[in-house]
Amino acid sequence: MPNSENHSGGLSKISNSRHYSFSVVVVLFIFSVAAVLPLLFSMMSIHLFRQRNVIMTVDRVAAKLSFEDIHNDYDFVQFSEGLKAMQKPPYIVFYDSSNLDIFLNHICNLEFIPNALSRLVAISFDTNSHMILQEKYPKIPSVVVDLDPIKESLEETYENRRYIIYQLVLLTRTRVCASLALRGINYWAMQQDSLWIENFESMNIEDRYSDQYMLFDTVGNEQATAMITFNFQLPEYKRMHGWICGSTYFVRGNPTTHQFFMQVDAFMRSHQSPDSSIMTYLCGHRNYKCHRLPRWIISSSDYFRGTRETTPVMIQVDSDQKEETKMELFQRANFIFRHDNGTCDRRAVHKLRDAVRLAFPEKLKTLGQNMYAEGLLTRLYYAYKHIFNVDRYNNKVFLTVHYTLI
Ligand SMILES: *[C@@H]1O[C@H](CO)[C@@H](O)[C@H](O)[C@H]1NC(C)=O
Question: Boundaries of each Nucleotide-diphospho-sugar transferase domain copy (predicted)?
Fold first, then answer.
């Protein structure tokens, strides 16, 4: 064999290089097929088309009310100056005509909590609700960031219109947050569907965590401390430890938090993700100095699915039934603090602690039921990811939670 190699040295070189170029072609072919296949699949996938359309529409319509438009708006600048002059960080509630009733109800909740109402300020997404609030509560500082022209520019039949508007509202809230942070204002972003059971104001949470830039609420419920019930954290949240809820959060206005919300903005225009998962993801970077508040201070609706041993200071109430309005839900749970004639009901606020404990008895029946049990494959998948340190804390997975909504 070595002999023949010596003799036909030239030939073998030629055939070698032919082999070489052939294998290059094969490898190139395999690579291009591998590269083109996902493209083909994505072109065939209607869902991805829809998703792309949603993301592009959100980006397009959001450009009609840019960060600069909001930041430099005369009324908004005046409003911001007012916030800056406040002695304590304001509680900002964002609302529109669709949840004005819940907001008015919330104001009645705050009315009986010392020093709470004086810190409340309001940002409306339509002129109509703003006018009504001003008329009823002229002392509450308020401003309009009008989204009606953008909503009207999207015809009623536009695919996924509701979801696009939902994203637009959250994106606008993010821009407001970025703007206030740029002006160096410290503030709480809050929601009108939160119940104040105790005096949250007097706790001075923002002073207790003075070295943190942002404080967030989280989803899930409190783990029971007793050994027997150690497994009570809702199973679907086990993989989402520290997942931000995003209904109540504190922001210390500075260049870093401004940059944080500009990042959320950019993310929301290029991904189909809710702001809460994006904030969770970005908070993975320790320089943002995010801190998660314990659930005995602020809890999401998941409180109602737990043992209810400790009543949180504040609970945000989500509605999960489509056929019921939020007001009807609040009625059902005795969370109404406002009479029909517009006066506030002190007794209802005082009885709130009991109301919260007794609310939604149907949810207690599902206690301990493992509705979201994970299969062996899923568990193996997560074990694999954990071992190889791929998205170890599942922060990236959270970014996909809304994919099934469109
Ligand atoms: C408003 O309605 C409540 C309950 O019906 C009543 O107790 C209260 O006196 C009314 N207030 C005014 C000012 O009419």
Answer: 116-329
Output b/e per residue, 55-72; b: 16+ Cβ within 10 A: bebbeebbeebebeebbe
Q: What pLDDT digit, counting tens, does each position of 339-375 carry?
A: 999 999 999 999 999 999 999 988 877 666 655 667 7
Beta bridge pairs of residue 299? 315
What is the dihedral sign for C-alpha 302, 271, 279, 187?
Answer: negative
Best mutation site among 341, 344, 345, 347 for ligand 1, i.e. most ligand atoms within 8 A of its Cβ?
Answer: 341
For ligand 1, the distance from its centroid to the CA atom of residue 401, given in whole angstroms, is 45
Name the helix (H) or strand (E) containing 217: strand 214-218
State in Å: Cα 318 to ligand 1 middle: 29
Counting from 1 in the atom list of ligand 1, the atom nearest the Cα of 339 is: 2
CATH class of 61-405: alpha beta
Residues whose CB is less than 8 angstroms from the CB of residue 10 and which lie 6 or more positions away in sequence, other chains included: none
Summarize pLDDT for 245-290 with one digit per residue, the tens: 999 999 999 999 999 999 999 999 999 899 999 999 999 899 999 9
Question: Comparing 148-162, 279-293, 390-404, which segment has the lowest mean pLDDT?
Answer: 390-404
Write down the pLDDT at residue 231: 45
* Residues with a CB atom less than 6 Å from ligand 1: 339, 341, 343
**When comparing pLDDT for 404 and 163, which is higher?**
163
pTM of the model: 0.84
Atom of ligand 1 lying closest to residue 341 CA? 1
Nearest to 87 by CA among 210, 177, 201, 179: 201
pLDDT of residue 226: 42
Q: Which atom of ligand 1 is nearest to the CA of 340?
A: 2
